[in-house]
Amino acid sequence: MNAAERELYEEAILFQTHFLRKPSKIERFSKGVQQQVNRRIPARFHQVMTSAVKTMVESTVSGSHFTSFSVIDEQLTIVERNELAKEKVKYYQKAAAIEGIGTGAGGLFLGMADFPLLLSIKMKCLYELACIYGFDLSHKEERLFLLCIFQLAFSSSAHRQKMISMIDDWETSREEMDWYSFQQEYRDYIDLVKLFQLMPIVGAAVGGVANHQLTGQLGDVARHVFHLRVLKEISM
């Protein structure tokens, strides 16, 4: 592992440590508020969210929505791949923000439409990042790995530790995915944001900013997870 690779590896370790820290008092308070908000969101919206997540999981596992992306030069270093990945995340952040502004301005019904659209944008982003780092998504286990990253990015502090352990021991734990928890964790994670996005006018601003941040968060988590995975293989 050269100096540049070592720097990326240490950055990923630091990111992981920060990401797995115990929730602060503010975060615990926010979780309490979120649980109350959860009960105020229309049942129809919960149904849309649950159905969208289920469809996304099923299509990812089966590979039914898998499409080939641009072939990445195998000679690229991980540092060069990281720069490509950053640019790709920015592209999808812009796409998600534009989509969030459009649907957020329409209130309840268009706000509900935003959820499956944002899921699709996030998964496309993950697919492209995996290709940039050289993973073959024609293999089911690699698509399952993307769902692990997705769970890690959008779950409670307690669940993150479980996902990190699964990712670290991917070869033996990849068949232990709990799809019900996947749906529940993701839905609960973004309920508060989505409630504001359902409000007419205000929803446009919230939708644009929230979608931009959520997609960026997924991209950051994915890059660091891929760095840990690739660089561990290099150092072995």
UniProtKB/TrEMBL annotation:
InterPro entries: EcsC
Domain of life: Bacteria
A Pfam family of this chain: EcsC
Protein's UniProt name: ABC transporter-associated protein EcsC
Organism: Bacillus pumilus (Bacillus mesentericus)
Lineage: Bacteria, Bacillati, Bacillota, Bacilli, Bacillales
